[in-house]
Amino acid sequence: MDNNEQALSNASAIKREIERLKTGHYEVGAFGVIQNYRYGEFWAHAKEIGEKFKTLKPLSGEDRERLWKTYQETCENMKGTQNDEREKSRINRGNIEYKIKEAYSAAGGSTDISGVDADKEMLDKAKAMQTENLNMMGGSKLTKEDREACWKYWREVNGSIDSKVKQTQQMNYWRVDAEAGDAFNAAYSGDPYDALNMIKSVQKIVGGAYLEQYQRTALRDKLDDAWQKATSRIGEKKEEKRKKHEDWRERMEDNIARWEGRIEGSEAFISRLEGQIEELGDKVRNAWSANYVLTASGWIVEKYAKIAEVREQIGDLEAKIEDVKAKLEG
């Protein structure tokens, strides 16, 4: 092959490489739309072509000038495309970082997120925003540097939100646990009926509090323990009260029986006194001595007085019996 043929062959080889440089370093999506440029590959290939201008000889001046111009235009076009993409990436990065900052603020963020109060609604909103931001990163055109910067910022803010969530849940747990502790103490050593009301109140708080599941379980276990103890003590109190009532009822029934026995004895005593009075009356009517009549009459008066005294005692006992029977029936 002579020099002219070799020069033509070299020019053709460089031309083919330039064409490959133009079309071989990007990915094509649907409808032939370019989706992504592989800049590293492009510039490595461009460097190889630049070396070919030095190493492939012979090459006519006219072909060298024409091919070099095409080569430079291709490189300049790629520089423009790369710069445009970098600018778009810069804008996208700014938008994403702004959205991440909004999520940080939604969580109660400030210069020190740990010093700002937050509630469940705020934190749930911030976490939802971070999910949207992650999706936004995945769907945005970004350079490797900008993507890494966005990802780093997203993770920092997400860590702060997670920390705030844990802090808020821990503070909620301590607050509710203090109230659960009061109910627990009341169940073990206070009024068990008051304890049940306290437990019900704390159970409602636990149901709506922003807590980790293990924290909620721990609180419910404590309240269940307190509930069991309170109901057990109430059962003991009821049994004690029932036993006292039974003892009282037994005593009252014994009293009634004893009082009824006393009434029966008093009635018999009155009958004997009445018999004695009748006997003394017969003797008075048949007496021959005035002194005896006077003495016997005194005895009769004494016996009537005793009967009146005993009947009054019987009345008191009957009143007691009626009162106790009413209480037993009540």
Topology:
Layout: H1 3-23, E1 26-28, E2 34-37, H2 39-55, H3 61-106, H4 120-138, H5 144-189, H6 192-208, H7 213-285, H8 290-329
Antiparallel strand pairs: 1-2
Describe this structure in words.
- It is a single chain.
- With 330 residues, the protein is mainly α.
- Among the domains are: 84 residues, no CATH class; 79 residues, Orthogonal Bundle (Helix Hairpins).
- A two-stranded antiparallel sheet has the order 1-2.
- Helix 3 packs antiparallel against helix 4 and helix 6 runs antiparallel to helix 7.
- The radius of gyration is 55 Å and the shape is rod-shaped.
- About 2% of the residues have low confidence.
Question: Gist?
Answer:
With 330 residues, the chain is an all-alpha fold. The protein has helices spanning 3-23, 39-55, 61-106, 120-138, 144-189, 192-208, 213-285, 290-329, and strands at 26-28, 34-37.
